């Protein structure tokens, strides 16, 4: 079998192409289907599918590089790509609970037709399951399968997904909760186009409604007692945090590139020379370069350790996501301050970068959860050698 290993610079090349239409997709909210056709052709939608299935066989480090590069051109596209790369990174990993045949079919479809997959977890009443609670989405057992009914919100990539990994509870006397793999072509599944947000407008994060949707027995890929989901999965946390950090770092790099170009070109009549020659702008750009340098180190370290093992604890992955994304936000906000009115003009991309980068604070793990978990652990730690 020929293994589809993309060339190292293909993501940067595609990012430049995607950047040309990013503003148009942002304004209309239209899903960028053409971008995903190009990503599939380049082998990037199957980047983290194992080589034995024809995929790129990449780990987290390479996936983060690609997501960051695409994020600098079109963050909405990068977010959808990140979710698919994340799922394949986990589904085919050594700790996966999936039936091997189902996982292999999913990987083969990503290779053959660029099939996208994402986890559908958030609900109107529950919010994010990461903060606790049972999903309202119900999976009812039948002799040869399951019937699923419920509504999922913020279903990123919905217009292009081939599969949704639906988080649900069973109707068993002792309910289990977990993931069922649902084809998006299944009867009873529909998309309601509800996504109309300030940032990442082209991500197609609409509602997905399931009404008595049937899936075979082996599509219940990971059902467990509720208590088995407590504490989090370090591998899932590492992949999610690294890819989200890379995405928003990519947004910041897009803003930095625009800012540098603006300062080189902007020549006020009172100055008679480009703003780039003024020490205060040089210092400011040096500070934003510092933030990007720190981000690079943090993402690379988290990804490399995850690939090599042992996987860092969830708290460390959360710190990386929080620090990188806050650095990215600070950079874009500073770029706006330095630029002035031109920064908020719709004809320039900086206002879009600002709207997109602020979405980092919404993605799990959120800042309060990261800090509270770490603070509680520190305060509850053994007093031996630490507290009197």
From TrEMBL:
Keyword Flavoprotein belongs to the record: yes
UniProt entry keywords in alphabetical sequence: Flavoprotein, Oxidoreductase
SUPFAM superfamilies assigned to the protein according to its UniProt record, in alphabetical order: Acyl-CoA dehydrogenase C-terminal domain-like, Acyl-CoA dehydrogenase NM domain-like
Domain Acyl-CoA oxidase/dehydrogenase middle positions: 123-213
Q: Which PANTHER family match?
A: ISOBUTYRYL-COA DEHYDROGENASE, ISOBUTYRYL-COA DEHYDROGENASE, MITOCHONDRIAL
Q: What InterPro entries does the entry give?
A: Acyl-CoA_DH_C (IPR013107), Acyl-CoA_Oxase/DH_mid-dom (IPR006091), Acyl-CoA_Oxase/DH_mid-dom_sf (IPR046373), AcylCo_DH-like_C (IPR036250), AcylCoA_DH/ox_N (IPR013786), AcylCoA_DH/ox_N_sf (IPR037069), AcylCoA_DH/oxidase_NM_dom_sf (IPR009100), Mito_Isobutyryl-CoADH (IPR052547)
Q: Which domain of life is it from?
A: Bacteria
Q: Which residues form the Acyl-CoA dehydrogenase/oxidase N-terminal domain?
A: 17-83
Q: Which residues form the Acyl-CoA dehydrogenase C-terminal domain?
A: 244-363
Q: What is this protein called?
A: Acyl-CoA dehydrogenase YdbM
Q: Which species is this UniProt entry from? A: Methylobacterium jeotgali
């Amino acid at each position: 079998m020929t293994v589809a290993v993309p060339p190292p610079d293909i993501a940067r090349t595609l990012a430049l192409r995607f950047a040309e239409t990013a503003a148009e997709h942002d304004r209309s909210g239209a899903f960028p289907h053409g971008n995903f056709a190009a990503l599939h052709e380049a082998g990037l939608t199957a980047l983290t599918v194992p080589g034995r299935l024809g995929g790129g066989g990449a780990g987290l480090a390479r996936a983060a590089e690609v997501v960051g590069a695409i994020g600098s051109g079109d963050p909405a596209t990068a977010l959808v790509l990140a979710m698919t790369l994340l799922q394949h990174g986990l589904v085919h990993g050594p700790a996966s609970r999936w039936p091997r045949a189902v996982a292999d079919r999913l990987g083969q479809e990503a290779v053959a037709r660029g099939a996208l997959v994402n986890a559908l977890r958030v609900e109107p009443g529950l919010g994010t399951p990461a903060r606790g609670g049972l999903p309202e989405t119900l999976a009812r057992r039948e002799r040869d399968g399951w019937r699923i009914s419920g509504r999922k919100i913020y279903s990123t990539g919905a217009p292009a997904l081939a599969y949704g990994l639906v988080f649900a509870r069973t109707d068993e006397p002792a309910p289990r909760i977990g993931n069922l793999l649902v084809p998006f072509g299944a009867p009873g599944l529909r998309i309601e186009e509800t996504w109309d947000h300030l940032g990442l407008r082209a991500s197609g994060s609409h509602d997905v409604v399931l009404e008595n949707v049937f899936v075979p027995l082996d599509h219940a890929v990971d059902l467990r007692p509720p208590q088995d989901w407590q504490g989090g999965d370090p591998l899932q946390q590492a992949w999610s945090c690294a890819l989200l950090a890379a995405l928003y770092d990519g947004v910041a790099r897009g803003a930095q590139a625009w800012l540098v170009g603006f300062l080189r070109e902007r020549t006020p009549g009172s100055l008679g020379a480009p703003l780039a020659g003024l020490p205060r702008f040089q210092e400011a750009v040096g500070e934003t370069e510092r933030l990007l340098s720190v981000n690079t180190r943090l993402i690379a370290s988290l990804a490399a350790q995850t690939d090599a093992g042992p996987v860092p604890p969830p708290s460390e992955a959360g710190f990386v996501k929080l620090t990188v994304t806050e650095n990215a936000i600070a950079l874009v906000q500073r770029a706006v301050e330095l630029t002035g009115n031109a920064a908020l003009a719709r004809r320039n991309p900086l206002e879009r970068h600002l709207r997109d980068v602020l979405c980092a604070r919404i993605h799990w793990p959120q800042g309060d959860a990261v800090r509270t978990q770490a603070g509680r652990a520190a305060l509850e730690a053994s007093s031996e050698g630490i507290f009197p």
